[in-house]
Specification:
Elements: E1 5-6, H1 22-26, E2 32-34, E3 44-48, E4 52-57, E5 60-65, E6 68-72, E7 80-88, E8 94-101, E9 108-114, E10 132-133, E11 144-155, E12 158-167, E13 170-177, E14 186-191, E15 198-207, H2 222-226, E16 231-236, E17 240-245, H3 253-274, E18 285-291, E19 298-301, E20 304-308, H4 309-314, H5 320-333, H6 346-361, H7 382-394, H8 399-408, H9 416-421, H10 425-438
Parallel strand pairs: 17-18, 18-20
Antiparallel strand pairs: 1-10, 2-15, 3-6, 4-5, 5-15, 6-14, 7-11, 7-15, 8-9, 8-14, 11-12, 12-13, 16-17, 19-20
Length: about 450
């Protein structure tokens, strides 16, 4: 169904599940509980701008106006199924937050994206910053059902959090968060910007077994013990220690040792130097892990890079090394640790990574070609990289360093380009297109 779902790991029935505790098995049957009475905002509070509006209109909660969050006072919840019926307006953006910790302004926690036609290309069905969907699964102004299943668990001796995402009863994927970035918390909805209007008419939660019990403890599985680890450690003097794990895909070990490790040794220091900013220290101890069963290409979770082994085996002579360089940029960026409302848009995050990859690392003869008739600057990956590269070549040769520092300091906004470079993003893109056309649209 989806051709562009990029996830850390999407695994289904083949994975082992933890067994509920005896106390949980003997407890009364769990039931769905409504968190919205259809008439009032009882059990909810607004966090953020006083100019925002959260009202109940015709049996639905409606958020509009300035950015803010509507936070449930019920909770916290750890293991649960969460089901919401909602809609977003044309061009609007919102977020369904879970395991959040209430704090002033935007909250932090897991966010299920709500956007059908917003300029941010990350669409409904995505776990923002973790697993992105770029296909339009729901139309604007149309009611749909979002369901999220969350459970702390253990796989192959490693503690993690399982997150299942479904739209209108269709399960999209299961994301395994080995970083366990957020613990028990509350639910919340985001009012993203004044042009967005989000409506919610049903909010239900079902507590899962072990909610009040201990978090499952890692217990090594026999197959994990019997498998000989294939680990190679790269120590970059004064920079980092990086572990390459090809245990699940041993066929890649020789390529990792002979080809990938020398590139990482050279380029990780270059990347961290280019993305340096005041008061920030880049990760200096992380892993690059190749998985036997994994969809997509590669994904950075926390500080570690996860790579789809089958894809790499098929692309060793083409894009394999460059894709790791792209992910090394994400390791160095670490924007995920910023408050949600201060993070730069996804297209810019990916654009910085792809500018370093395609315009600095990859040789010119391997560089992709852009379809200028269809492309736009706010499309992630190569179009955004081309936009940034035009700025580097024609306006500010240190733009990647400057933009990264501003992103990390929370200084990015919709008016950033005009304020920084005296041109809107649209004007810069038009100039880049004119340059390409004059050169024969390379």
């Amino acid at each position: 169904m989806l051709t562009r779902i990029l996830c850390l790991i999407c695994l289904f029935a083949a994975l082992p599940r933890t067994v509920p505790s005896a106390a949980a098995r003997s407890s009364e049957p769990q039931r769905w509980v409504s968190l919205f009475d259809g008439r009032t905002l009882d059990g909810w509070r607004v966090v953020g701008s006083e100019q925002t509006k959260w009202d109940v209109v015709d049996g639905a909660i409606v958020g509009s106006g300035q950015p803010s969050m509507l936070v449930s006072t019920t909770g916290p919840y750890r293991n649960f199924r969460y089901r919401v019926e909602m809609k977003i307006n044309d061009g609007g953006n919102s977020g369904l937050y879970f395991r959040t910790t209430p704090e002033p302004g935007f909250l932090d926690g897991y966010e299920a994206q709500v956007a059908s036609t917003h300029t941010d290309p990350i669409r409904t069905g995505s776990l923002y910053g973790m697993c992105h969907v770029y296909a339009r699964l729901v139309e604007p102004d149309a009611w749909f059902v979002y369901e999220i299943g969350v459970r702390d668990d253990v796989w192959r001796g490693r503690a993690m959090t399982r997150i299942r995402v479904s739209i209108n009863g269709q399960e999209l994927y299961e994301y395994l968060d080995f970083a366990r970035q957020f613990g028990p918390g509350h639910f919340a909805f985001q009012q993203h910007d004044p042009k967005s209007i989000v409506s919610i008419r049903s909010i239900q939660v079902l507590r899962l077994p072990d909610e009040d019990g201990p978090i499952p403890q890692p217990v090594p599985e026999p197959e994990a013990i019997e498998t000989e680890a294939a680990l190679d450690v790269l120590t970059i003097q004064g920079s980092a220690t990086i572990t390459f794990d090809t245990t699940e895909v041993p066929e890649l070990r020789a390529w990792v040792q002979e080809t990938l490790m020398p590139v990482v040794s050279e380029w990780y220091p270059k990347i961290t130097a280019q993305l340096a900013s005041d008061g920030f220290s880049p990760p200096d101890d992380f892993r690059i892990i190749f998985r036997a069963q994994m969809d997509g290409v590669a994904h950075t979770s926390g500080q570690d890079i996860y790579c789809a082994g089958e894809w790499y085996k098929a692309n060793l002579r083409t894009e394999a090394v460059g894709s790791v360089v792209h992910e090394l940029v994400h390791v160095a960026q670490q924007y995920r640790g910023m408050p949600r409302g201060q993070r730069p848009p996804g297209w810019l995050v990916e654009g910085i990574a792809d500018q370093i990859r395609w315009y600095q690392f990859e040789p010119v003869e391997k560089r992709r070609r852009l379809n200028w008739e269809r492309a736009n600057y706010d499309q992630p990956y190569f179009p955004a990289a081309t936009f940034l590269d035009y700025i580097v070549r024609n306006i500010d040769r240190d733009a990647i360093t400057t933009i990264n520092a501003d992103c990390r300091a929370g200084r990015y906004s919709d008016g950033y380009w005009l304020e920084k470079y005296g041109m809107t993003a649209e004007e810069i893109w038009a100039a880049a297109k004119a340059e390409a056309t004059a050169k024969g649209n390379p």
